[in-house]
Amino acid sequence: MLQAAAAKAAAAAFLWTPGADSPSQHTLLHVTSPIIGLVEGLLTGETTVGDVLQRGDFGIGTLNHLDGEVMVLDGVAYQKGGEGKCRLVDPSEQTPFMTVTRWCPDVADTVQLSGRTEHSELLAEIEGHFPSQNLFYAIRVTGRFEGMRTRSVIKQAVDRPLAAVAKDQRVFELGACSGTLMGFWTPGYLGSGLNVPGFHLHFLSDDKTQGGHLLDCVALEGKVQIQALHSADTDLPQTQDFLAADLTRDPADDLNSAEK
Amino acid sequence: MLQAAAAKAAAAAFLWTPGADSPSQHTLLHVTSPIIGLVEGLLTGETTVGDVLQRGDFGIGTLNHLDGEVMVLDGVAYQKGGEGKCRLVDPSEQTPFMTVTRWCPDVADTVQLSGRTEHSELLAEIEGHFPSQNLFYAIRVTGRFEGMRTRSVIKQAVDRPLAAVAKDQRVFELGACSGTLMGFWTPGYLGSGLNVPGFHLHFLSDDKTQGGHLLDCVALEGKVQIQALHSADTDLPQTQDFLAADLTRDPADDLNSAEK
């Protein structure tokens, strides 16, 4: 945890003025549905990617039947499928889980990486710039990488829990590449039912041919941008499967094994 | 848990059509800030009750410095203070924690109590009408009571954790009375950081002279109304105290001892 004095000083740059009626679109994390549904194998949502793009132009997620990894950058949704191809997502496609915001980083919080940076060092560097452990953050790293390991989950014929699906994930060793890491950091006090606690990052290469859920990387140079998010909303699915599901199991262990 | 078939049948009455841009105001639970702040003794918010009333006309909460219990009914906020008086709240007063919605119950889900009903029976009766354990519900019981026990927390001179404050709460034995129980039910999969899991009900007498956080009651007759809520939003406080707080402790035990 940051010391109180340091946090107070650093927090000044992140203050915002809430509107009278609704949270600012620029500081709102939108979670399509609680991630516990995905953990418990509810892989089919009724929300379209087009609906999600109306709520935010930056984010990550997956498609129905856990069909790969989704990256939303500058309002465009890309998918890295389990078969290895990267493609544009049609707005009519549906998703069981995405998280998005309107990208509007704090200029004061742009950080240039100082040289070769391992994955764990990169996360520590990013976290070191958070003025508080108690907010959400959107994170974007534009950089050149010595190497990158990503994964994509494989489209499922039948619903089954996320941890089981993740055991069959496709792993991609990208080698030297340039591109963007994007995603979010969620404070731990919200538990594991709503969203992935801590970091959750996906990658998309500059030429839009490579991507997926980040497993490991080594950055050679890069620019880190951070946007503090001061509010969150989530819809609860209307599907019969969600309404009838037993969601009483703690999803923390499954999320940790599937997402880290 | 309900059986799947029963849940699917019962759920039909609760389906709604989400708007293109934002969740329906009629199905939105608004949480002013995560309750873990209150649990950890952050008793001062910057949100006014007037701001909260713009987000909903039905709900419960407290005032800054944990000054009593708040009941919002038909767009009017009342406070039962620790000193025992019930009064109107001025919209300029501030709150560290409230939960509200726009009250719009499902007509099909109005239930007449069949006779003398103990507190535990009342909660079981209400829960028995939920089509799913996985949604939020707003709950309103208009009734005549043989007896009622409520509590109000006492305004604090200095910040201290909720469980410590609750040990000094004022308890009121109301005797025979008529009035309204109001509040919410929150699904357990969201943990204890955002809102009180399960039931959280306050009481306000018809003559607006009695009220507080419900501890126990015996209903003689009454009407139960239930409103399913399919989305939720929360703002994260901007106070320096919140940004600097250590919120890593699990609040479940403290919430259970303070609120049940």
Automatic annotation (TrEMBL), chains A, B:
Q: What is its EC number?
A: 4.1.1.5
Class of this enzyme = lyase
Q: Which InterPro entries match?
A: Acetolactate_a_deCO2ase (IPR005128)
- Where is the secretion signal located? none
Sorted alphabetically, the Gene Ontology BP terms of this entry are: acetoin biosynthetic process
- Keywords on record: Acetoin biosynthesis, Decarboxylase, Lyase
**Pathway(s) per entry:** Polyol metabolism; (R,R)-butane-2,3-diol biosynthesis; (R,R)-butane-2,3-diol from pyruvate: step 2/3
Q: Give the catalysed reaction(s), semicolon-separated.
A: (2S)-2-acetolactate + H(+) = (R)-acetoin + CO2
Which GO MF terms are attached to this record? acetolactate decarboxylase activity
Short name of one Pfam family: AAL_decarboxy
| Family recorded in the similarity comment | Belongs to the alpha-acetolactate decarboxylase family.
Under PANTHER family, the record lists: ALPHA-ACETOLACTATE DECARBOXYLASE
Q: What is this protein called?
A: Alpha-acetolactate decarboxylase
Q: Which organism is it from?
A: Chlorella vulgaris (Green alga)
